[in-house]
Amino acid sequence: MSERNMSSFQYHRHTAYSRSRMSGHLLDWANQPEVYKTYEGISSIPLPNGNLPEERNFREMVHGEETRPPSGITFQTLSHILRLTNTLTARTRYSGRDFFYRSAASAGALYPNEIYLAHDGVPDLNPGLYHYGIRDRVLHPLRQEKVLCPILDATDFPDKTNAAASLLITGIFFRSAWKYRARAYRYVLLDAGHVLENLILSLRCLSIPFSVHNRFHDRDVNSILGINGRQEACIAVVHLYSESDEAFPVAEPRKLSVLPEAILQSSTVSAKEVVYPEIPSIHEAGADAPDSAVSGISSRHDPGISVQNWQAIERCKTGNQMLTYPELLVRRRSKRNYIPHPMQQNDFGGLLDLICTSCGVVDKNADGADSLQVGFLADRVEGLTPGFYLLDPHERRIGLVQPGQLTGIMTNACLNQDWLAHAAVHFLFMADLNFLDQRWGARGYRYAMIRAGRIGQMIYLAATALNMGACGIGAFYDEEVNAILDLNPSSSLLYLVAAGPVKRL
Ligand SMILES: Cc1cc2nc3c(=O)[nH]c(=O)nc-3n(C[C@H](O)[C@H](O)[C@H](O)COP(=O)(O)O)c2cc1C
To answer: Cα–Cα distance between 22 and 19 in angstroms, integer?
Structure first.
């Protein structure tokens, strides 16, 4: 297989799990990747810990009700954003050391994603490029020069007038590949989607205008960040805006300085890193992001599933007792202690409402909004015929594809993770991989996976808000799950998120 020719379809099929072909794989504990990035000889700047502004409950926030005027962006605001995007939330002992879980879920808790911040003139912080040190709540200054303009250019963003800062999410492939080998690219993208959803919610929580960019010039962005695109690569960029009367002057581009080795080598997370060639192959095949508007492909995304009758999702009016987003973020955990009780109709409606509302907010601008088909298996939802349904978040409706109790066989196909059978609902994220390839080239795979991760994180938070549990599932026998859903030959399940009532502890 040549370096730059892997398609979404080929990568996904090539990294399929199969009951008959699963080979055992011993983890190389001596070379377990470091989960925190370090920069030798580079100082760190503590992030201010000021109080968060008073917050609305989660439902009101997601619906954008009672929005306060957009706040000005200061160093304190940036600190809030980072804290509300990803932070340490729980501690456990692991191999004789403290191990910390985070506010965004991550396959195998391997945490492949990093966050960078660039700004040209936010008060109280020198212009430049910074890495977010999540463990110590610090910024690592990487460039002390104005970089916002080249980043805006690399996302083809012509209007620079109100741009105040950019946040960039990257993935360090070996952190996940250490355990999941070639399949890890799936998880690095899904995990990035989880982090991105938190970032979007943090900006909504703080009423900061923003735009999300999955389409950017890889080489330009990676080189600004000082990462080589093979060990670590940028996955998503988010621009933040300030009100026009306090706009920051964005500097004209000029040649950026050469970065020191301590920064250029910082993506190395293990003494012995193995490169699984499928990962650079699919990632680099998607390096040239085609403009979706000029792709000329007008066919609709169709994984071969048809719905007879659609039913509307009511806008959720209840939920005023819900916790706030910052409160939910620290409570969110993967739950596997499901009880075989039906999900209440109201809770299910609330869950769907939050998912649809969240999708609608960003989809207007985000690339690849129609890269994904969302569905669910509902075995135990009050008032709903058990079966396989599609969810159309834009039209806010659901449609029955096939009646029947299907979570049991789906559980078997998910590597027999038996607790899954008790979850009331299995949310499903599916895509026609050939459609992705035709429409966006291999870049389409990123769009679909990031989007699946984003909605997955929203399901986690919405379930937590409704006193239920959720858990992402990336481990499944691919052909078996596709057969259960009767997808057409070019389509696949990308990700599954279980949700439902859990045992109260
Ligand atoms: C993309 C993805 C795939 C996952 N796959 C599985 C899985 O197959 N089985 C499982 O039990 N948990 C799975 N998880 C849950 C992670 O194990 C969990 O997020 C991680 O251990 C961190 O714990 P926390 O979510 O409680 O913070 C997955 C999570 C993500 C984001």
So the answer is: 6
